[in-house]
Amino acid sequence: MLDEHQIAADKAYLYNLVDSLLSAVENEIKVYRELQLVIAQESQVLMKPTLELIRYTSEKKGACISEIRKLEQTRLDIVQRIADFLGRKEDDINFTVLSSYADEHRRMQIESLRRILVPLIKQINEGNEKNRGLLDFSLSYVRGSIHFLTGLMSAGGGYEDTGRMRPASLDGRVLNSQG
After folding, report:
1. Which long-range contacts does 85-91 make (Cβ < 8 Å, 24+ apart)?
2. Among residues 50, 97, 147, 158, which is most buried (max CB within 10 A)?
């Protein structure tokens, strides 16, 4: 049977792990907010792109993602330690499970972070999808322009190999109609 000192020590250890996890999640939220701003900037850049601005936002986005990966690994390590301590699987540890082991103050912190994190990640995903659409449109426009220019440059004589007249192609021609 565990004595009261061991129970208090176990509770203190668990609360220390939970506090470390909450701190890690707060740090992730800071970087996610920064990423959200970069994605919004990226959207503006994609409307009027310049190589310098594209490079700048790409570098900032890459730095944010790199920092998020580091913080995520820290968070996952803490979750693993919590899971081991509780005798549960790592995948079972989520905000709801943590709340059931936390005191009222920590439960409120967990809920507050959850209310911030879930919509923030949703907004980041939506921003990325919007930017992906802008990039897809830009790429299709560039491909169309390249196809058009290729057609202009490869326009040969008016005869096919058979000696027959090649059908009229409107590639690169400007039509002027009156009336």
Report:
1. 85/10, 85/13, 85/14, 85/17, 86/14
2. 97
**b/e string for 154-175 if b means 16 or more Cβ within 10 A?**
eeeeeeeeeeeeeeeeeeeeee
Number of H helices, E strands in the chain: 4, 0
Residue 137 token pair: 């449109």
Cβ atoms of residues 43 and 130 within 8 Å: yes
Residue 117: count of CB within 10 angstroms of its CB = 16
Residue among 122, 120, 129 at smallest CA distance from 28: 120
Determine the residue type at 97. Answer: V
Tokens standing for residue 89: 């699987």
pTM: 0.74
Over pLDDT 70: what percentage of the chain? 83
C-alpha atoms less than 13 angstroms from C-alpha of 170 in its C-beta half-sphere: 3
> Which one is predicted more confidently, 176 or 115?
115
